[in-house]
Amino acid sequence: MVRMHPQPSVSVYNKLLSVTAKMNKYSFALHVFDEMCQMGTPVNDYTRNIAINCYCRLKRVDLGFATMGFFLKKGYEPNGTTFSTLIKGLFLDEKVADAAKLFKKVLDSRLCEPHDVMILTVIEGLCKAGQIFPAHDLFHGLERTRWKPDVKAYNALIDGLCKTGRVDDAFHLFSKMIDKGISPDVITYNSMIQGLCDVDRMKDVVGLLNQMVGSNVPFDVVTLTTLMDTYCKEGKVEEAKDLLEVMIQHNICPDVVTYNALIDGFCLRGEIDKAKEVLDSMVDRNLNPTIVTYNSLINGYCKRGRLDEAWVLFLDIPRMELVHSTCTYNTMIHGFISKDRFAEGWKLFNDMEARRVSPDICTYNTLLDGLCRNGKIDEALSFLHTIEVKGVNPDILTYGVMINGLCKNGKHDVARDIFDQLPSKGLQPNIQIYTMIIDLLIQVISVDVVKPLLVEMEKCCCPPDSVTYNVIVQSLLKKDELNNAIPFLKDMHQREFSADHATFAMLIDRVQGQNEDDFLIKLMKNVMPKEIFKN
Q1: Distances (CA, A) of 285 to 30, 264, 316
Q2: Which of 43, 119, 324, 530 has its CA 20 to 30 A from that of 389?
Q3: Helices 361-373 and 377-389 sit at what angle, rounded to 10 degrees?
């Protein structure tokens, strides 16, 4: 274009820049912009803002600021779009604090008039970064100014509140926007419905659906897909399927997410053949399955023990021009290992790394569990060290798997050492790990060392449960320490815990031949499961 005579107008250049930017060809757009500057081609606000946006999209917000500074020296004033673009660039570059500071500077120094897009950018950026409280405070601060948040800003904050479980706060904001005369749109309702479904408040969901009908806000595919997904997770797959038919009848076109929810629902119920039927109907509607679709089906086959069919699907994925995800590999690896096909699971892990699909902590936990199940404790300890060296942070489940494997394979001292190191790693033992260690300590030391651990559990807001007490009683009875078990049976009665069948059977062995008024028999009745007591 630079060789053309006469030179194209700035509007022609702007159209080229705009189109290439929308195609995500940011580097090419910047190359054209650079040629314009070198040739002295006139530029306007639109041109400059496109260039700044391209730098921001490439996560070079520093060059975006440099571009603004360059034109500022030439006498061009940045406008609201310029600052909105830079703020968004800072969020994209995960410089959340800097983005908030820039917005505050715009307001305090009156650098420009903040418009709705700028306000939305800040609220949405803070929410996506998990900064809900700052977003909430900023939002209410703006309400007291002349820059009132619009429905899109309300939607962003409501969505952020719902996604962090603060549904009551979202409901309050929802009511407030109506009181202020701002009508919720379908996006508002969808965020609220998703948040309420996540916390199982279905009565409130029904109320909102009725409100949508009363306010003439039509349901869209997101509304009904959210309901379908909730039905499926609750095991109400037939209701979800009926809802799919309603969507089609009302000319609301189900999308791939809709079908994925239904496929996953059938897979969770073990009805793989029905899931396949849904897949076929999805393809008949010219919707292409995604990797999520295949992940659900592979998971369904694995849970039913149909590994060979899962493996056929796994191999079929590249033919569908899809790429295996970490979740795909994790599901298949877990399927192999859960069916004692550890060698195949480990081979698949090697293939995963060779194809540069990044393993996550779930991958490592599954493999570690496989090593422990196969009695390969030394290899498991070495693998745990490898995980730590790679910079992956093992979670409490990782160490739980390792401690369990060590306990079952007689490596008691090593298990205790790992348990003692958890606080220094910033991890709080969960109830399962405490129970494992308590069982271990009773076996190798004595019940006296367990009592401080029970107190510690209470202090850490991780109180012992029925399983913990059953494990303690069983361990003591195995050591023929009935007298030491009695105080724990009393505690079980006070906490309204019941003995499980294994504990109860061991206690019965102890009282055979005893009189009916025997103290232990009375204690047994106190912890006896109610259904047994009635019989």
Answers
A1: 41, 18, 21
A2: 324
A3: 160
| Nearest-angstrom CA–CA distance, 486 and 490 | 6
Q: What ranges in 361-500 are assigned the alpha helix state H?
A: 361-373, 377-389, 396-408, 412-421, 431-444, 450-459, 466-478, 482-494
Closest CA to 520 of 503, 495, 501: 503
Q: Can you give the pLDDT at residue 449?
A: 82
The contacts of residue 326 (CB under 8 Å, 6+ apart) are 352, 357, 358, 359, 360, 362, 363
Q: What predicted TM-score, i.e. pTM, was given to this entire model?
A: 0.79
Amino acid at the residue 152 = K
pLDDT at position 531, please? 58
The type of residue at 195 is: G
Cα dist. 510→161, 248, 532 in Å? 56, 65, 18
Residue 507 to residue 519: CA distance in whole angstroms:
12
Crossing angle of helices 342-354 and 361-373, in 10° steps, is: 150
Q: What are the backbone dihedrals phi and psi of residue 417, each rounded to the nearest 5 degrees, phi first?
A: -60, -45
CA-based R_g, the chain, Å: 31
Name 148's Cβ contacts closer than 8 Å, sequence gap at least 6: 142
State the distance between the two ends of the chain, measured CA to CA, in whole angstroms. Answer: 92
Cα→Cα distances 195→14, 169, 298, 370, 412, Å: 42, 11, 28, 37, 45
For residue 445, the 8-state DSSP code is: S
pLDDT digits (tens, 9 = 90+) for 361-408: 999 999 999 999 999 999 999 999 998 888 888 999 999 999 989 988
The token pair at 46 is 């639109």
Using CA atoms, how far apart are residues 292 and 331, in angstroms rounded to an integer?
Answer: 12
What per-residue confidence (pLDDT) applies to 532?
55
Which own/partner contact pairs does 60-66 have at CB distance under 8 Å and 24+ positions apart?
61/86, 61/89, 61/90, 61/92, 61/93, 61/95, 64/89
Determine the Cα–Cα distance for residues 275 and 405; give it in Å rounded to an integer.
36
Q: How many CB atoms lie within 10 A of CB 238?
A: 11
Give tens-digit pLDDT for 52-105.
Answer: 999 999 999 999 999 999 988 888 889 999 999 999 999 999 999 999 999 999
pLDDT digits (tens, 9 = 90+) for 223-234: 999 999 999 999
Distance CA 515, CA 58 (A): 82
DSSP 337-349: HHTT-HHHHHHHH
- 89 Cβ partners below 8 Å, 6+ apart? 52, 53, 55, 56, 57, 59, 61, 64
Identify which of 65, 50, 72 has the alpha carbon closest to the alpha carbon of residue 95.
65
Q: Which band of pLDDT confidence, cut at 50, 70 and 90, is reported for residue 28?
A: very high
Would the CA dihedral through 429, 434, 435, 441 be positive or negative? positive
Contact 60, 81 (CB under 8 A): no
Calpha distance 69→265 (Å, rounded)? 55
